[in-house]
């Protein structure tokens, strides 16, 4: 329900967003019509963490630093409920930019074949990202779990987001047979799989601006990024963002990679000097301008989902975070809600700050 005072404020506001092209404005305030029926693959239907083992040549994979790194042979194994060990052949390849240069163990993309995953827990997966440990320390594991939670929040808000599932993953060096680490990781839904269940297609086109995206979806992504304190994205340049084209003519932004957000507050995270923020904890709105009457509808969604978002930090997955991290995160979110629930603050901190 839209909070009292919003509609009086809307009537008094005039912003450049009101002059957007009719092609964008005609979709305002509308989420994708089929969003509620979008289903993820069976693998992501379960939230139970999967205990698995990844066996690969660690020395070889850590040397793969180029943009066109080759696929390397590996095995992903898990044990079924009846204690049967299942070994799934998979190819892996390094990915990313910052993490690839910085991490002691590189981020990976998995490549399954449909034959290999048939009748396994990985059935339906193709080339998903594996968000794995960067450094083999408890602190970096905490960062990963915090980022995992942000993907879960995004899923609460909209199905036009990547599904994720947590793994307790052991890494075995195939060359020596020795274990290297056991840490949490998560598999992130492949972009093409996301697009398929949404009835659309991921487009590799840069340059989309405020007149191209569906205003409601655009504002929802911008406000979500503001909630988590993330400025490390750019929709027009597809930096940590994807362009989802739907069959009804709508263009929806989809974002990912949240470890530079204020909610995670990683010690390595920095802010682009061009952005007016001293630290990642300082929120700056980076969404495009949309018609002004879209914002209260989006804020109402965040209000309606507040309890569900906070409950993610109380369930069995959220309980894997340290209690003090949970307290600080929810306090950070409280500050967000203080902003959107006061029309003057929302206007000055979000609506007036939109990218024109």
Q: Would you mind describing this structure in some detail?
A:
The structure is a single chain. This protein has about 350 residues and is an alpha+beta fold. The protein folds into two domains: about 190 residues, no CATH class; about 150 residues, no CATH class. Helix content is about 30%, strand content about 20%. It has 13 helices and ten strands. The strands form two sheets. It has a seven-stranded mixed beta barrel. Helix 9 crosses helix 10. About 10% of the residues have low confidence.
Q: How is this fold's topology laid out?
A:
Layout lengths: L5 H7 L9 H4 L16 H4 L4 E7 L1 H5 L9 E8 L5 E10 L3 H5 L5 E4 L2 H4 L11 E3 L6 H20 L6 E10 L5 E10 L2 H7 L2 E4 L11 H14 L12 E6 L4 E5 L38 H11 L1 H6 L11 H18 L2 H7 L7
Parallel strand pairs: 1-6
Antiparallel strand pairs: 1-2, 2-3, 3-4, 4-5, 5-7, 6-7, 8-9, 9-10
Helix pairs in contact: 9-10
How many E-type strands?
10
In percent terms, what proportion of residues is strand?
15-25%
Largest sheet: 7 strands, mixed, barrel
- Detail the poorly predicted runs: 7-37
Q: Overall 3D geometry?
A: globular
Strand order in the largest sheet? 1-2-3-4-5-7-6
Distance between the termini: 28 Å
Give the helix tally.
13
Q: Which structural class should the secondary elements be placed in?
A: alpha+beta
- Which whole number gives the mean pLDDT? 90
Helical residues, percent: 25-40%
Domains, number: 2
Overall radius of gyration:
21 Å
What series of H and E elements makes up the topology? Answer: HHHEHEEHEHEHEEHEHEEHHHH
């Amino acid at each position: 329900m839209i909070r009292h005072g919003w509609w009086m404020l809307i009537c008094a506001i005039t912003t450049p967003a009101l002059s957007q092209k009719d092609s964008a404005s005609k979709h305002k305030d509308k989420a994708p019509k089929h969003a509620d029926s979008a289903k993820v693959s069976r693998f992501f239907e379960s939230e139970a963490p999967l205990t698995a083992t990844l066996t690969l040549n660690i020395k070889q994979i850590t040397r793969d630093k180029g943009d066109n790194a080759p696929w390397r042979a590996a095995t992903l194994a898990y044990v079924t409920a009846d204690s049967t060990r299942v070994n799934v052949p998979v190819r892996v390849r390094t990915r990313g930019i910052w993490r690839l240069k910085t991490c002691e163990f590189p981020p990976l993309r998995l490549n399954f074949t449909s034959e290999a995953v048939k009748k396994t827990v990985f059935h339906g997966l193709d080339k998903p990202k594996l968000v794995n440990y960067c450094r083999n320390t408890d602190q970096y594991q905490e960062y990963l779990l915090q980022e995992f939670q942000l993907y879960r929040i995004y899923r609460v808000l909209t199905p036009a987001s990547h599904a994720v599932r947590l793994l307790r993953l052991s890494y075995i060096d195939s060359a020596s047979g020795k274990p290297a680490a056991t840490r949490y990781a998560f598999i992130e839904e492949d972009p093409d799989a996301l697009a398929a269940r949404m009835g659309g297609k991921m487009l590799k086109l840069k340059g989309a601006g405020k007149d191209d995206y569906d205003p409601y979806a655009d504002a929802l992504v911008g406000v979500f990024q503001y909630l988590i304190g993330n400025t490390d994205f750019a929709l027009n340049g597809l930096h940590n963002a994807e362009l989802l084209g739907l069959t009804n003519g709508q263009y929806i932004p989809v974002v990912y990679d949240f470890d530079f957000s204020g909610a995670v507050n990683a010690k390595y995270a920095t802010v682009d000097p061009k952005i007016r923020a001293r630290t990642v904890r300082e929120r700056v709105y980076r969404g495009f301008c949309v018609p002004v009457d879209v914002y209260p509808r989006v804020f109402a969604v965040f209000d309606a989902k507040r309890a569900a978002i906070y409950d993610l930090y109380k369930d069995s997955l959220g309980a894997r975070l340290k209690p003090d991290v949970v307290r600080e995160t929810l306090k950070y979110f409280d500050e967000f809600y203080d902003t959107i629930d006061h029309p003057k603050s929302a206007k000055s901190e979000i609506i007036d700050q939109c990218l024109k």
